[in-house]
């Protein structure tokens, strides 16, 4: 059925996001603005491992284009430059590594029913967990 990341997803909960952003070195004002955001992620699969992830908030919209297993240059939401790579580590488990200063690993794990995913963001031993539910 819908056991795919393709679709639109709305954030429903977030834990430890402020601590994660502090570990990234994000400024106070950006942390406060980001904490207030309830993002929608629009994920599209174009075939041959090509993906687009658009993260929409009232502050800004961030578009990520990548091919699985291929390194790309990324400017992150908070303005860091990274050499990034995204892999499908297991079916329904997308792992996004941002190699830079500091190192970040972002995992999206699809729920078995395909109606939600858990996003885990890790930096310097600090882990943030954000849950998303399917809205389209
Ligand atoms: C996520 O996709 C984590 C990133 C959210 C970015 C919010 C906007 C940040 C503005 C600096 O859930």
Write the layout of secondary structure elements.
Elements: E1 7-15, H1 17-24, H2 28-35, E2 40-47, E3 50-56, E4 61-67, E5 72-75, E6 81-90, E7 93-99, E8 104-110, E9 116-123, E10 126-134
Antiparallel strand pairs: 1-2, 1-10, 2-3, 3-4, 5-6, 6-7, 7-8, 8-9, 9-10
Helix pairs in contact: 1-2
Bound molecules: decanoic acid.
Protein model, in words:
The chain contains two helices and ten strands. With 136 residues, the chain is mostly beta strands. Strands 4-3-2-1-10-9-8-7-6-5 form a ten-stranded antiparallel sheet. Helices cover 12% and strands 56% of the residues. Helix 1 packs antiparallel against helix 2 (28-35). The model has no long low-confidence stretch (mean pLDDT 96). Strand 6 (81-90) and strand 7 (93-99) form a beta hairpin. The site of decanoic acid has 14 residues, from helix 2.
């Amino acid at each position: 059925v819908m056991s795919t990341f393709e679709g639109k997803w709305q954030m429903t909960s977030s834990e430890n996001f402020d601590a994660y952003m502090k570990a990234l070195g994000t400024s106070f004002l950006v942390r406060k603005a980001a904490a207030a955001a309830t993002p929608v992620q629009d994920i599209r699969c174009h075939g041959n491992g090509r993906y687009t992830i658009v993260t929409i908030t009232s502050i800004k919209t961030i578009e990520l284009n990548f091919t699985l297993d291929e390194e790309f240059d990324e400017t992150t939401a908070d303005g860091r430059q990274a050499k990034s790579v995204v892999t499908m580590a297991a079916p329904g488990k997308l792992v996004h590594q941002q190699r830079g200063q500091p190192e970040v690993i972002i995992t999206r794990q699809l729920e078995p029913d395909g109606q939600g995913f858990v996003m885990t963001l890790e930096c310097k031993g600090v882990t943030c967990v954000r849950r998303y539910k399917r809205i389209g």
